[in-house]
Amino acid sequence: MDINDNDPVFDQASLNGRLKENLANGNFCMTVVARDKDDGLNGTVSYFVSKSQPSPDRSALFTIKTTSGDIYATGRPDQYDRETNEYMLLVIEARDGGNPYRSATATVTITLDDDNDQIPFFPLPLYTATMSEITTSGSILLVPAIDLDLEPKLQFKLSGSPGTEHFIVSTLGQQANIQISKPVDYETDPHVYNMTLYVHDEIDTHINSTQIQIFVTDYNDNPPVFESSSITVQMLEERPAGTFVATFKAKDVDSGLNGEFDFTIVRSSDPRYEFYIDPKSGNVTTRKPVDREVSDVRRLIILATDKGQCTVSVHFSRPSGPFFFSKSTY
């Protein structure tokens, strides 16, 4: 006669099952098997969900068939959310048919497989970047997106004119890589580009958006330009210091400090220091009486920072002659 002197033993020391998240209502998870070396009822094994469970207790979410060891998920679909709990632990008890019975327990790990149930999103409602107008290529802004699903395949799209005429977006992992596709001219194009960035995964309805602002800064890429390339003035010699000669005007379409400039006389064109130009107004005056006998023509070169250049010829006549000056058109 057999004596019930053996405990049931599970076939595997590590018991693992899988279940796709958001599925329940009796879906099969796995089968556990335990064996007992005893004979008859002493060796017949039955299975139960143990009353002793690890925290948090998941026993209410699963049932097991007593005779077969088949485990089923019986909770609501939303209770099997991989993003909340990727793994669920369940203690199973195997009992033999002896009186009293002998038993053993094993911990089952049920892994929830991912389902594309998460909508990607951007952490912030607005992302900004600043670029110089001389930027002609490369990345301007990286915008991260979050999708809690495993290995999401994200796609991005930019919307908003005229921004999409100058910028494109590509996918870099889970980031939107916004790049410049067409150079921007600060003097003729907008200084701020407002666009909407969209993200979606393989399901088109899984879509979200954020706002993009790209600010363009001025670069000193334009030299001052004189209104006239040359000015000819005729004046009397020996006029007193401070006598007005001519006014130079120039423009620089750059902004801020980049558009500010000063006038100067190239010193080699006025070796006797006979003339002075106001650096802001462009008014040229004499520093001292000018003698015609030295030369009846003075050719001054006027500079406006940085590269704008203009020449002026000053012709002198004797005191009895008329005084006049004229400007040539640019």
TrEMBL record:
This protein's UniProt keywords: Calcium, Membrane, Repeat, Signal, Transmembrane, Transmembrane helix
One example of a Gene Ontology biological process annotation: homophilic cell adhesion via plasma membrane adhesion molecules
CDD domains: Cadherin_repeat
Name of the molecule in the record: Cadherin domain-containing protein
Cellular component aspect of the GO annotation: adherens junction; catenin complex
One Gene Ontology term of the molecular function aspect: beta-catenin binding
InterPro entries (alphabetical): Cadherin, Cadherin-like_dom, Cadherin-like_sf, Cadherin_CS
Topology class, membrane: Single-pass membrane protein
Domain Cadherin: start-end pairs: 11-122, 123-226, 227-308
SMART domains: CA (SM00112)
Protein location: Membrane
